[in-house]
Amino acid sequence: MMFAVLPTGLTTPFHYQFFNNGILVATIAGALCGLLGVFVVLRGMSYIGHGLSHAVFGGAAASAVINVNYFVGAGIWGVVSGVLIGRIARRRLIGADAAIGVVTTASFALGLALLNRYGQAQKSIEAVLFGSVLGVQTVDIVAVALVAIFSVVLIVALYRPLLFATFDPEVAQVSGVRVGLIEALLMAMLSLTILVTMRVIGTLLISALLVIPASIARMLTNSFARMLWISPIIGGVSAFSGMYLAYFLDTSASATIILVSTVIFIVVYAVTGLRGRTRISGLHHV
Amino acid sequence: MSCAYDSSVAVRHVDLSIRAGDFVGVVGSSGSGKTTLLKAMIGAITPVEGHVTKKPGLRVGYVPQVESVDWNFPVTVLEVMAMTRSANGRMPRITKSERASALLVLERLGLAGLENRHIRELSGGQQQRVFVARALFHKPELLVLDEPTSGVDVRTRHEVLHLLADLHDEGVSIILTTHDLNGLAAHLPRIVCMNVEIIADGSPIEVLSSDVLERTFGAPMEVLLHGGLPVVIDNGGTDFAERLSRLA
């Protein structure tokens, strides 16, 4: 039992194994999205994170319809979507933002159509949009934890090249950093994160947790290194508190987690004042 | 060597040698291929025709245009310096010896005590010098600067010019791009005028003529001599002033 010191009523949710599993996986997923969100926000990739999570929805739906393993189907779909975005964006007439918009909305619409035609549409769509954090299986916890460990190890090992390639990719390339490889690794981490967390916390929550904690961390510090631990803490705390509150408020866990992180954003925005606003307005989003 | 973006040629048939000890300014209007030429030289762009040959093991330091820097990015001066030492699996924390070497370079460029400042908190001249410091951190033999005096005030321009002259005196070869004919290019020992291809290459006295400048910038200009230095007069501006005086 967790939190035995709390009054009985407040510890009630922790009496249920499904809740303990849910809050554990949501907290790890929140911290993981917060960690990767630092790169997403600073590289102006907010829309890519948002888009990829929606694109994977198409793969998840197709996997369900043709009865293929979720991780295989959604994983292949995510990679294909990423490649398509890259190919379309390379044609200079169409910007990266438009390419992401075309591929991800098409993928999302296809997933929706497949579920309408062949699946239990309403139930499946809700599960993908908002996740089913209370229906978490052991495999989900293991998958999220493994991706989290992999991401932390990779970020510590490649800290300087990641920082250089994020801040100044052109000079990094000239200075011997393999920028293409670094960017591919970053996209792989992002795709893996979306893949293992989507079934649990849903598309909308992934998008929110990739952007909001990192933006809060940016307002709180001028240091990249500090952002890398403040953002996961905010992501984890938001997820934990949101899950806990959702139990008592009888609201969607994903929606409550987003609202908790939004409240933290508003408070920090107000407290840090003009300095924070200047930093946030300086973040470019593609 | 030629470079292109999609089907648009940015640099055509350029044949240029930079020798040890050179101090070269590349001048030309916007879109004349100056930055593309520098990027091809440092290996950031691959030529579509021809090639760039460098002395084996040549250490090159590159200073980008300050306008291209994201000043809101959360890094301090010291972190910017340490970035250049990203290879060979270096750990996140800046080591004592790295810190000591970085502080020496910062002191040399008049930036002592600013190592823990966020880059946005610096003045224009200090920001420019931080990126020169980053380039100098791994002791380059060739320093490549893209528009080092663009968008800076006169005092900062003087600071940057004196700094570059000092570095050149210490044996660093320098190539830079500039729009600034009178404030910068006319003071350099060698100028290359570019308009997609090389129009002229030589000392300011040899190169800065009305004919060369018109072919380089596509606009009429007059050149006078003042104290042994060529001074470029923009005729278009003179005509405009005359038209205004007639209206008055």
TrEMBL record, chain A:
GO cellular component, one term: ATP-binding cassette (ABC) transporter complex
TM regions (residue ranges): 23-42, 54-80, 92-115, 127-159, 179-212, 224-247, 253-271
Membrane topology: Multi-pass membrane protein
The keyword Transmembrane helix appears for this protein: yes
GO terms (BP aspect): response to zinc ion; transmembrane transport
SUPFAM superfamilies, per database record: ABC transporter involved in vitamin B12 uptake, BtuC (SSF81345)
Subcellular location: Membrane
Keyword Nucleus set for record: no
A Pfam family matched in the record: ABC-3
Keywords of this entry: Membrane, Transmembrane, Transmembrane helix
Family: Belongs to the ABC-3 integral membrane protein family.
Protein name in the entry: Unannotated protein
Origin species: freshwater metagenome
The organism's taxonomic lineage, starting at the top: unclassified sequences, metagenomes, ecological metagenomes
TrEMBL record, chain B:
Gene3D superfamilies associated with the record: P-loop containing nucleotide triphosphate hydrolases
Listed SMART domains: AAA
One Gene Ontology molecular-function label: ATP hydrolysis activity
Keyword Metal-binding included in the entry's annotation: no
ABC transporter domain span: 1-221
Keyword ATP-binding: yes
Stored InterPro entries: AAA+_ATPase (IPR003593), ABC_transporter-like_ATP-bd (IPR003439), ABC_transporter-like_CS (IPR017871), Metal_Ion_Import_ABC (IPR050153), P-loop_NTPase (IPR027417)
Keywords from the UniProt entry: ATP-binding, Nucleotide-binding, Transport
Residues of the signal peptide: none
Record-stated family: Belongs to the ABC transporter superfamily.
Protein name: Unannotated protein
